[in-house]
Amino acid sequence: MAGFRVREARVSDRHTIARLWRELMLWHEELDCRLAPADDGIQKYARHVQDLVQERDGHVLVAEEIATGDIVGYLLGELQQRPPLSKPGRFGFISDIYVREGWRRHGVASALFEEMRLWCKVRKATSIELYISENNDAALAYWNSMGFTPFLKLVHLDL
User: Fold this and answer.
1) Which residues are within 8 A (CB) of 81 and not within 5 positions of it... i.e. 6 or more apart?
2) pTM of the model
3) Considering the domain 4-145, what is its CATH architecture?
4) Under DSSP, is residue 126 helix (H, G, I), strand (E, B) or coil?
């Protein structure tokens, strides 16, 4: 038994998810200061989670510890339409995935991703995309192991 289960998030989960997001962003900030969260980011993120939970094309998942019901990880995803300049179609987009430190390497991220992948397939998405920080070696290795390959490269210029 894995000790956790994956379920769809509820609006009532939004504040817990937002606190986990803040942990994620503070970790990202250590990798790249451009990823520092805004002072009011946690409130805005909670509202974003609420919107996605209620949206038809949004998919927010949580992994909760069976024994306690505590949320130990989450995934924010949605379906998006290709822009009119490319072949039409829908694709899944994962904006965030995070697993608390004590739960990493226990299959939580893979279980969250697998649920997202199945959800996208049922909705006839042709692919799943996400952004990864160039400085996040662990994420690059993980998503590569899940079969993801580079597609576009986002570049940045400070002004």
Assistant:
1) 88, 89, 90
2) 0.91
3) 3-Layer(aba) Sandwich (3.40)
4) coil
